[in-house]
Specification:
Number of helices: 8
Number of strands: 19
Bound molecules: calcium ion
CATH class of the largest domain: Mainly Beta
Largest sheet: 9 strands, antiparallel
Radius of gyration: 23 Å
Helix content: 10-25%
Oligomer: single chain
Distance between the termini: 35 Å
Number of domains: 2
Order of helices and strands: HEEEEHEEHEEHEEEEEEEEEEEHHHH
CATH topology of the largest domain: Endonuclease - Pi-scei, Chain A, domain 1
Length: 427
C-alpha cells in the first residue's frame, strides 16, 4: 500500500473518532423535550454567517438530507401542519398562508422559540418571513420545500438582535441554525420520521413474533438468542436469531401506527420504522422496498407469513393510531422479522434498509459469535419452556447502537466515497 492510502485511512480514522465522540455526546434524538434536562448554555450571539452545528445543513448530524419537494397536491402535504400561534408574526407576503405550513418538528421548535424571544425582549415577538415554499423561490434541495426550514426575524426588525435570535433558535432545538443574512436567520430541522425515535421506537410490548417451534411470543418476552420468523435474502421464510435490541424500553408509552391488512393482520409499529411495501400487488419478495411506516398508504401491499411457511402479499385496508406501552426493536441476523405476521425491517430512522443492514454487519457478526459460544443454553431453555430468560447478549444502551448506526452512515455517505457505492443498492 502506498503512503497516500495510509494517510487517507488515518484521516478517516480521525474523522471517525471525532464524529463518534460528537454523536456520543449528542445522542440520537436531540430536540424539544428529548430525554435529558436542557443544558444551561451561555447565550452567545452567533456571528454573521456562522452556523450551528458547524457542519453542512444536509449532514445527518444537522438537519439531514432533503427528501423531495412537497406540493399541495402531493400525498406528503399531509405531513405539514399549520402554525396559528398567536405569539408569532407570519409575514405571509404570498397571501397563501404558506408561511404557516411546516413540519411538526419545525412547528414545535418555532413555538418554543417564540416564548424565548418574548422572555428575552419583552414586547418583541418572533416573526417568520418564510417557511414552506411552494413557489420555487429557493435553490433545488432547499428544506423550505418540505416545510423543514424557516427564515426568522424579530417583530421590531432590529438587526442587532439577530445574532442572539440565532442562538435562541439553537436553544429552542432547531437542528441547524444559520445567521444567513443581515436581514434574517435561517433555521431548519430533521425530518419528523427521523426523530420519532425520541419517544422510543419500533414495536409495542404486545407485538407478536413466532419463535422456532411455532410458539407465538410477545415482544416483552423475546430475548437475544431466540430465533424468530424472518425472511432470507432470497425471500424464503426462515428462523433468524435475535442478536440484540436496538431499542428497548418496557415502561415507555408511545403512539403506534396500526396497519390492518385484508387478511386480518394488525401490525403496530412506530412511524419511523421501516417496513417492506409495494404500491401494487407484487408477487415477489424482491419487488418490495423498505419505507417508513409513516409513508405507507391504504391500498399498499405488505408481505405476510402464510400458514404453509410461505410469504405472500396482503393489502393494507386501514391505518390508524393507538397508544401502547413498551418499545422494542429486535435486531435479527437477517435484519428483518415478521411482527404480527407482517414482514418488517429491524431498522428505523434511516431510510436505507440495506445500507443499515450492511453498516451493522460487524456488530451482527460480533454478537453472532458471542451467542454461538455463550448463548446456546439460554436459547434452548427459552425454546423449551417459553419463559422469561436472559439471552447471552446484554441489553446495551439504546443510544449506543443508534449512535453507532449514524456513525457508520456518516462514514459511508460523507467521508468515504468508495464505500458510498454501497448506498444505491438500497431499496
Ligand atoms: Ca413568505
Amino acid at each position: 500500500m502506498t503512503l497516500a492510502p495510509w494517510l487517507r485511512l488515518a484521516r478517516l480514522g480521525l474523522l471517525a473518532a471525532c464524529t463518534y465522540t460528537w454523536l456520543w455526546v449528542h445522542g440520537c434524538g436531540p430536540g424539544p423535550g428529548y430525554g435529558s434536562r436542557p443544558r444551561q448554555r451561555k447565550l452567545t450571539p452567533l456571528a454573521y454567517k456562522q452556523y450551528v452545528p458547524g457542519i453542512s445543513e444536509n449532514n445527518l448530524g444537522a438537519s439531514g438530507r432533503a427528501e423531495g419537494k412537497i406540493t399541495r397536491n402531493s400525498e406528503r402535504f399531509n405531513e405539514l401542519v399549520c402554525n396559528y400561534n398567536p405569539d408569532i408574526d407570519f409575514k405571509d407576503e404570498e397571501h397563501t398562508e404558506a408561511d404557516r405550513f411546516m413540519s411538526k418538528r419545525c412547528k414545535d421548535c418555532l413555538n418554543k422559540l417564540s416564548i424565548a424571544v418574548m422572555n428575552q425582549w419583552p414586547g418583541v415577538r418572533l416573526r417568520v418571513t418564510e417557511a414552506w415554499d411552494e413557489d420555487d423561490n429557493h435553490p433545488p434541495g432547499s428544506l423550505h420545500y418540505e416545510g423543514r426550514a424557516v427564515d426568522i426575524t424579530t417583530s421590531d426588525r432590529d438587526i442587532k438582535k439577530y445574532g442572539l435570535l440565532a442562538q435562541l433558535a439553537v436553544e429552542a432545538g432547531f437542528d441547524w441554525v444559520y445567521y444567513e443574512s443581515k436581514h434574517h436567520v435561517h433555521c431548519s430541522v430533521k425530518a419528523d420520521h427521523s426523530v420519532a425515535v425520541e419517544k422510543g421506537g419500533c414495536f409495542p410490548a404486545s407485538g407478536m413474533v413466532m419463535v422456532s417451534g411455532g410458539l407465538l411470543k410477545p415482544m416483552s418476552r423475546l430475548r437475544p438468542g431466540d430465533a424468530v420468523l424472518a425472511s432470507s435474502e432470497l425471500g424464503d421464510v426462515v428462523f433468524s436469531r435475535v442478536l440484540l435490541f436496538l431499542h428497548l424500553d418496557p415502561e415507555s408509552r408511545s403512539t403506534f401506527l396500526i396497519l390492518s391488512t385484508e387478511d386480518g393482520r394488525c401490525l403496530a409499529l412506530t412511524s419511523n420504522h421501516l417496513i417492506f411495501v409495494a404500491s401494487t400487488n407484487k408477487p415477489h419478495y424482491h419487488e418490495y422496498y423498505a419505507d417508513f411506516a409513516s409513508r405507507v398508504r391504504r391500498g399498499d401491499y405488505v408481505l405476510i407469513s402464510g400458514r404453509d411457511g410461505s410469504m405472500r402479499p396482503s393489502k393494507i385496508t386501514s391505518i390508524s393510531q393507538e397508544e401502547r406501552s413498551g418499545v422494542y426493536a429486535p435486531l435479527t441476523e437477517h435484519g428483518n422479522l415478521f411482527v404480527d405476521g407482517v414482514l418488517v425491517s429491524s431498522y428505523a430512522s434511516i431510510e436505507d434498509h440495506r445500507l443499515a443492514h450492511w453498516a451493522f454487519g460487524p456488530l451482527r457478526f460480533l454478537f453472532g459469535l458471542v451467542q454461538l459460544f455463550m448463548g446456546e443454553n439460554s436459547e434452548t431453555a427459552n425454546q423449551e419452556n417459553g419463559t422469561r430468560v436472559h439471552g447471552a447478549c446484554p441489553l446495551l444502551p439504546v443510544k449506543f447502537f443508534h449512535s453507532l448506526l449514524i456513525f457508520w452512515i456518516c462514514l459511508v455517505t460523507h467521508f468515504c466515497p468508495i464505500l458510498s457505492l454501497f448506498s444505491p443498492m438500497a431499496n
